[in-house]
Specification:
alpha+beta, Ubiquitin-like (UB roll), Alpha-Beta Plaits, 6 helices
């Protein structure tokens, strides 16, 4: 067993456990996009970043790929982490604003603007479809091509793969294929239709370096029950 500190709590988990697995086990939600329990971790989207260490040596790491170490200090929702996640969401919106999953993430993290050039590239290179095809469908019909800004997903030389069984697994798991609901201004990068404009929560001053990690939010549940 490995002992470490998670959001100020001394906890213990089995050796080999990732920070993401440990955080979810103890009730600390961490948003993810390229992660799926049925697939191998990939760490592409960086949405699951957490802060480890202390002082000037503290750094951000992807929780889905970083395994817990003895004496490690982890913060899943510090100010630095939240800023990084919002930046990632803005970048995702620049590539795929029509994704319902990404729009829901934007609403949940109070992202109200997108400051990057709108590309409408759709594919965010999360690798979910590639891993689904290889690990669950046992086909390897698609994969990554090229590198850097030319990186894409498809078949070699754009020739139809003989291994593809048209199972639809890649479409089923793709966040870009799950389009957002109808909105009055579909050309806008951020929908915001599901955003909770006024959060009836505890005093924010009590959480200088820690946002509310309760999911669902207890305060919101109380308000809803009184309506």
């Amino acid at each position: 067993m490995v002992k470490f500190t998670l959001n100020g709590l001394e906890v213990e988990v089995e050796e080999g456990t990732t920070i993401l697995e440990a955080a979810r086990f103890f009730g600390f939600p961490i948003p993810t996009l390229c992660y799926n329990e049925a697939l191998s971790p990939y760490g592409a989207c960086r949405l699951c970043v957490v802060e480890i260490g202390e002082g000037p040596k503290a750094k951000l790491v992807s929780s889905c790929t970083y395994r817990v170490e003895e004496g490690l200090k982890v913060r899943t929702a510090s100010e630095r982490v939240i800023k990084a996640r919002k930046m990632v969401i803005e970048l995702l919106l620049a590539s795929c604003p029509q994704s319902k999953i990404i729009q829901d993430l934007a609403s949940a993290h109070d992202v109200r603007r997108q400051r990057f050039k709108q590309e409408y590239e759709d594919c965010i290179l999360c690798g979910l479809c590639v891993r689904m095809c290889e690990e669950q469908m046992m086909a390897k019909a698609i994969g990554f091509r090229e590198r850097g800004e030319r990186r894409s997903i498809g078949t070699p030389f754009d020739i139809k793969s003989e291994e593809c069984r048209l199972c639809g697994g890649c479409i089923y798991i793709c966040p870009a294929c799950q389009l957002r609901c109808t909105y009055t201004e579909p050309e806008e990068a951020i929908c915001g239709g599901c955003a909770n404009i006024s959060v009836p929560c505890v005093e924010k001053e009590q959480f200088d370096d820690m946002m509310c990690y309760m999911e669902p939010c207890v305060a919101c549940e109380i308000i809803d029950s009184e309506k």
